[in-house]
Give the backbone structure.
Amino acid sequence: MRKVKNMMVAFLAIFMLGSSFVTVSASANTNSSYTKAMNKYNKTSSATYAINMDTNQVYYQKNATSKRAVASTAKIMTLYLAIQKAQTTKNGWNQKVKISRSLANMSRHHSLGSYVLKANKQYTVRNLYKASLIASSNSATIALGQWVSGTNNKFIKKMNAQVKAWGISSQARFVSSSGLENSDLYPYYIRYGSRYDYNRVSAKALAVIAANLLRLYPAIVNDAKLYRYHQSGQTLKNANELLAGNAALHVDGLKTGYTPLAGNCLVSTSQLPNKNRVIIVSLHDRFNAYDQSRMYKMIYKTFPEFK
């Protein structure tokens, strides 16, 4: 029996070492003031996931593996694939993408557009990337996906193939490159799946996607942290409220999202000088910027790696 018990202990040790994500450290156990505070900061969120990107240590999680509507935070998946192609294609960032009439019309819609694109005009991949990242332009994001794969449908399949390759397909299923629900896309002939389908992604899966994006292109934070940016005679406006008035937190990204179905969603990232990078994902939280600012402060105050 002792031999069997020893074998089980060894097996469990190997299993824990091989796990991709570790639990909250003992300094922040379930009875601590830390966890009570983090729970308080997440009262209104449907799902939350906070992780050290460099060590994979989980600082907090709530309903982290359940799939939900995530609005424009889904754009980080599109940006990953677009940047991947831009970096591996000759003169990729400067390649030109022609805008269809339907995408141009969408860009002028009062609630679906944030950056006006002109039909039949060509825009560089870098222009579309910045419009997608900073202003959350749905039309620019869809155009990037079409540039990557040729058609919207082929690109959606590529998105789902990528999350499968990362081992998170059980927590992420895409039907939209922009994050809009299909009910908004159908009138513009952007159709993948049924009319009332939408992206279903977990908070944990979004953190995995964000980490891969940041590793692929660390310089993305130089653009994601811009609160305002002028391009082609227009002002790109960043909706990430953590970028304004929170200099001490060193937040430098990453992506916001909102639809009535998904609510307010936020994938943010912060890195104190010479410290590891932290990613926090919160879904359907009407106070997500305020709640996340308090979460960052609590993490940095509690864990020794940030001292």
